[in-house]
Design goal:
This protein is mostly beta strands and 231 residues long. It has a single domain, classed as Porin. Strands 1-3-4-5-6-8-9-10 form an eight-stranded antiparallel barrel. Strand 8 and strand 9 form a beta hairpin. The longest helix is centred in the first third of the chain and has 17 residues. The protein starts with a helix and ends with a strand. The relative contact order is 0.22. The model has no long low-confidence stretch (mean pLDDT 87).
Length: 231
């Protein structure tokens, strides 16, 4: 099922990026994300097991990850653009219990992410063009793993509780500079997930009758380049 979803995303992207009926400019982007998970009950045991029973009550920290991909800008008017994007993105969370137990728990989730964004160009006559960006995103989970470090020992494995799909909204501020035969792009964005990204596995079903929800949160800084190749 996951493979079929991945193929569907790739087919949609191929149509968007190669249609001769569209007029736009393609580009590449890359950057860093600072991400975390938000639990409605502040209890991750139903999803991650007893190994986080006491670690989760220590220090919780966001996880630094990569966001790399491509985008395509369709000019709708002088002020508005439509911009589909496609990224490999990393999300996660970590817990620390250093003072007493010297223990660290890291959760890493890798996604293929498809934002469909609208950009409004602010009417300022500056040397760069600022804009406000917003729109929905959908993401397909391609892998998830955990690392548990206790003193000098480290154990890693996969996490079965992460759901296949995440979705939500993107809010961003952007700016672009004309350089060479294209534009350098800068984005500062927030990804606000709406989907419950975790389900209680069968082996943990006795932990909670109502485990609550877990949602993704991320702040992302990216830079990229838009080529003046139009088709």
């Amino acid at each position: 099922m996951l493979i079929n979803r991945n193929r569907l995303v790739l087919v949609v992207l191929f149509i968007i990026f190669t249609s001769s009926d569209l007029f736009g400019q393609a580009g590449i982007k890359g950057g860093l994300s600072v991400s975390a998970l938000q639990s409605s009950k502040e209890d991750y045991r139903p999803f991650l097991g007893y190994e986080v029973s006491w670690v989760q009550h220590g220090t919780s920290n966001p996880v630094l990850g990569l966001q790399l991909g491509v985008f395509y800008t369709l000019k709708l008017s002088d002020a508005f653009n439509f911009q589909p994007e496609f990224y490999y993105s990393q999300r996660g969370y970590q817990f620390d219990q250093t003072p007493l137990y010297n223990t660290n728990y890291n959760l890493h989730i890798n996604y293929l992410e498809l934002p469909l964004l609208f950009e409004y160009k602010l009417p300022f006559d500056w040397s760069f063009k600022p804009g406000i960006i917003a729109g929905p995103f959908a993401a397909i989970q391609i892998s998830s793993d955990e690392k548990i470090k206790i003193a000098d020992e480290e154990v890693s494995g996969t996490v079965s509780s992460v759901n296949s799909i995440d979705y939500g909204l993107v809010f961003a501020l952007g700016a672009e500079f004309n350089v060479w035969n294209g534009q350098i792009i800068l984005d500062l964005r927030i990804n606000w997930g709406f989907s419950n990204v975790m389900s209680q596995p069968d082996e943990f079903i006795s932990l909670s009758d109502n485990p609550g929800t877990v949602k993704t949160r991320a702040v992302i800084f990216m830079t990229g380049y838009r080529f003046n190749w139009s088709w």
